[in-house]
From TrEMBL:
Pathway assigned in UniProt: Purine metabolism; IMP biosynthesis via de novo pathway; 5-amino-1-(5-phospho-D-ribosyl)imidazole-4-carboxylate from 5-amino-1-(5-phospho-D-ribosyl)imidazole (N5-CAIR route): step 1/2
Class of this enzyme: ligase
EC code(s) of this entry: 6.3.4.18
Species this chain originates from: Maribacter orientalis
InterPro entries xrefs: ATP-grasp, ATP-grasp_carboxylate-amine, ATP_grasp_subdomain_1, PreATP-grasp_dom_sf, PurK, PurK_C, PurT/PurK_preATP-grasp, Rudment_hybrid_motif
Family the entry assigns: Belongs to the PurK/PurT family.
Protein name per its UniProtKB record: N5-carboxyaminoimidazole ribonucleotide synthase
Pfam family, one: RS_preATP-grasp-like
Length: 384
């Protein structure tokens, strides 16, 4: 099929910042795009050929949106899968495949998938209702502390909480959830795997993630991860195994723990471009968004190696500020060596909302990390 400057139409479910950055690549190649998002202010609205406002979880909306596209992909996994399955039955190419999304959308199913395929992961328990957790604690079946996760539609740090006492359960959603044993770990790592529709598969280098202690969001992504070569090889091998077992076409971001004794455990996965891969825009030969487009169109996969060391800093709304956004001191970080800010196009800020990111590249990883720290300390996402 001819994708370039042609009648081919690519549909994208979700118009957030991931979709916006995906559209940088489709515009580069003159691929016609159609985007669906619930917000009239979605960042992707200015970059696509067609923009449709509507719910990603409504069957009729998603089905009708997808009927006139040739390939349909996602930038967020919280979408109506019944509609995607119907479109797939009718001949629309849907990547990643709905079958894979069925596993990934629900964290309980995801964990059971790991167990069934002998993929190492933290021990867990599944609960139909939050109240069952209190009963399990009272009966000695579950010990504090543990990690609580909502089963369905958790996203970007939402729906995850460390529970150290019964009081920590107050206010949590009452429905299906899982609890995980807390893992003593050295590092949180991630590997992005790309797999095209012809079965070609590649991994990006292992990255190291540093998280904000309150928001459970990534603050820094460091590539390459500062870990032993053998540990990195094990992480990439395990990520490949996960991707091959799930069998999706597109990108799969595999988040992992490096334990105290250097074992690798899978935490969870995301079937799309991912925050842990943003560094690749400036640092890699082929950035993750271009690789995703290559994957879903069955094009040859690009070189995943890094040209230079990269550190990514997330720009999130400061606590205490809500309203029209201001990027305070952005001029100062632009004067720093190897710094590139990416502003997502969200007009309103609120505490911990992802508003952009900054990539710092340098031949010296330690220097890149040092500059990243200065960036973090300098720029502030506040309101007027």
């Amino acid at each position: 099929m001819d994708y370039f400057s042609s009648d081919f139409k690519l549909g994208i479910l979700g118009g957030g910042q991931l979709g916006k950055m995906m559209l940088y690549e489709t515009r580069k190649w003159d691929i016609y795009t159609k985007v669906l998002d619930s917000s009239s202010e979605a960042p992707s609205r200015i970059s696509c050929n067609e923009f449709v406002q509507g719910s990603l979880l409504d069957y009729e909306t998603v089905y009708n949106f997808g009927k006139d596209v040739d390939v349909l992909t996602i930038e967020i996994e919280n979408v109506n899968l019944d509609a995607l399955e119907k479109l797939e039955e009718e001949g629309v190419k849907v990547y990643p495949q709905p079958k894979a999304l069925r596993i990934i959308q629900n964290k309980a199913k995801q964990k059971l998938f790991y167990v069934d395929h002998e993929i190492p992961t933290a021990d867990f328990q599944r609960f139909a209702y939050l109240s069952e957790i209190e009963d399990s604690i009272a009966n000695g079946g579950l010990k504090l502390p543990f990690v609580w996760k909502v089963a369905q539609f958790g996203y970007d740090g939402q729906g995850v909480k460390i529970v150290r006492s019964l009081d920590d359960l107050k206010g949590l959603p009452a429905g299906e959830c899982i609890t995980e044993t807390m893992i003593p770990f050295k590092n949180e790592l991630a590997v992005i795997v790309s797999r095209n529709s012809k079965g070609e598969i590649k991994t990006y280098p292992v990255v190291e993630m540093e998280f904000h202690p309150e928001a459970n969001q990534v603050e820094y992504v460091i590539c390459p991860a500062r870990i032993d070569k053998k540990v990195a090889e094990n992480a990439r091998s395990l990520a490949l195994k996960v991707a091959e077992k799930i069998g999706l076409t597109g990108l799969l971001a595999v988040e992992m723990f490096q334990t105290i004794d250097d074992k690798i455990l899978v935490n969870e996965v995301a079937p799309r471009p991912h925050n842990s891969g943003h560094y690749s825009i400036e640092s890699s030969y082929t950035n993750q968004f271009e690789q995703h487009i290559r994957s879903i169109l069955g094009l040859p996969l690009g070189n995943t190696d890094s040209k230079v060391a990269g550190v990514m800093v997330n720009l999130v709304g400061e606590e205490g500020y809500t309203g029209d956004v201001v990027y305070k001191n952005i001029e100062e970080i632009l004067a720093m060596e190897g710094v590139t800010p990416h502003i997502y196009g969200k007009a309103q800020t609120r505490p911990f909302r992802k508003m952009g990111h900054v990539t710092i590249v340098n031949n010296d990883l330690a220097k890149a990390r040092s500059i990243a720290q200065k960036v973090k300390e300098t720029i502030q996402v506040i309101s007027k």
